[in-house]
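Re: the 217-residue chain
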Amino acid sequence: MTPHLIALIGLAAAWLAYGALHSLLASLRCKAWFRARWPQQMYRYRVAFNTLAVVLLIPVLALEQHIDGVPLWSWSGVSKITALSLTLAAVAAFIWSTRYYDISIFMGTHQWRNRENSTSDEGALTISPLHRFVRHPWYSLALVILWTRDIESTTLVSNLMISAYFIIGARLEEQKLVIQFGKQYQEYQRRVPAILPAPWRYLTAEEAQRLSESHPP
């Protein structure tokens, strides 16, 4: 194997390790283990989880930058304008969508302030405008941003690993959501695709409201 190929395998392994640890720490089993041992510290878990996710991401991104990537694809002309437009639209949609999330719960500051020691995030099933078309809109938008970049061998490996993690991570996340919301979420799964939108599978605003207001069994 060439040194460049070995470096790319190392990059893929770094992403794999990051994704595996991230999924492990996000699992209900790990949270239950932590709570059983430090029940009065559970309210700190989400903040620690997010902080660790950012800190551990730095060396992986640094490794990608350290490897000299081989250019594979570069947008130009109309395609470059299209790619840039899609990137900007995805970023704008991401910023706009945050109004439908409780960012304090997502970041863990709400749990910290209120000393909440639950292993799961409480609350009703909220179906935002973007959630009417895909169940994981942030993953969808992130994929647009990833794949509209110029592609080198390093970015290709990173894009593939991140895309795979989104698919696997979405499934693991939904196992917890089914436990939390039961048949209510299973109906949502049946009606709306996970990450890639499909023109024939979506909820109208009225259907989304009815489903979000229905009570899980």
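The chain has one domain: 3-213.
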